[in-house]
Amino acid sequence: MTKFPKNFLWGGATAANQLEGGYAEDGKGLSIADALPGGPERFEIVNQPDFDWTIDEQKYRYPNHEGIDHYHRYKEDIKLFAEMGFKCYRFSIAWSRVFPNGDEEQPNEAGLVFYDHLIDECLKYGIQPVLTISHYEMPLNLVKEYGGWKNRKLIAFYEKYASVVLNRYAKKVKYWMTFNEINSALHFPVMGQGLVKSNGADKMQNIYQAWHNQFVAGAKAVKIAHQVRPDIMIGCMLLYATTYAYDSNPVNQLAALKENQAFNQFCGDVQVRGTYPAYTESVMNRYGFSFKDLDVTDADLQVLKENPVDYIGFSYYMSTAINITDKKLETANGNLVGGVKNPFLKASDWGWQIDPTGLRIALNELYNRYQKPVFVVENGLGAVDKPDENNFVQDDYRIDYLRKHIDAISGAIDDGVQVMGYTPWGCIDLVSASTGQMSKRYGFIYVDLDDEGNGTLNRYKKASFDWYKEVIASNGEQL
Length: 479
Description:
There is one protein chain. The chain is α/β, with parallel strands linked by helices and about 475 residues long. The protein has one domain: Glycosidases (TIM Barrel, Alpha-Beta Barrel), CATH 3.20.20. The chain is globular and about 60 Å long.
């Protein structure tokens, strides 16, 4: 097995809206995540034509409001991460803590102070923060008043927000990302773009317009970052699902190529290369519109060209298989993208197909396409953990999943891929983004909280805690 580089960034990853809680404390405004009901039917509710972001606590639970109370317990949590030996910790800033409505002239100082303290707590233990500027939690006001990211006005709001946090934290924080899983909007634009059926999600032109506005906003953040700190590393972040044709039928091979372009490649091509790809018109024509139908200026294209990202961050949980020749095949669940069931793969408790080799393929595809460093910033197994009478979880299934994926990263490094680091998702149990559940657990640390909000919130180390500690201590040699 190839040895990992000495400066490899081992760590873990979370998102503000899924663990902080304190949703209305210290001046924080409402975010879109605060308006998402909990439970496995979360996406079905949001996809209803009459969903209008109203928070109805008589009808639904809103687990993101409490998260795991990281807002008050961050010192305890960071200490546990340090005990595991984290070299870095990827987390996000809650946009609505800094700009409660998103369109204010001045930021909320109390929100900024919280992240001052969180960053300093990481640095106290030698943990490098990796900050996501926006991770599925845009201020709710920007959706209600402006219609989400399809409105160009959001470019300026994001630019101001990015400028504030970059100028505040860049001296202490080298690694950044602009938007979380930006390409997820192709299949589910609510979390990344603030679009639901009632405000335009049913028209693909709106999704592509929203993407364009995000591309421009992200490029402006890249420009600010490089002005603030020349050696800063600011990347994009993609949801990557390695995509196979189900069989050797050329029809399915072509369908897989088209899906790859539309989902895995399009957002990366614009942000990394700084220009729209040759297949842009082909993709848009499939949905009944043209690139010229979008509101795109020459200044937009110039800022994209001049400010490509420095690296590619991406999430990888599963692969997907494409078959358009046999409509009878059983479909598979996945991280906002499914496909058909792959007969060669097993699946998680939630039906996501487990494919470590797919991660090695993804790393090769991304690095050879862009020739820029890649960073696996999400990967993990959502599972039902059953603690014993001492609240200990023997999660050998998680260890097995992570071991095989780390081995795949090693294989990619052997293939010549420049991999920056590895931050498994939900290094501490948190609220699932896709289902709003606590029972879908990813962490090395068990949090005593159930789907109904019952529990002590106490933290307990799982078996995977000590295993990952040894992985980091050995720089990936002891798996």
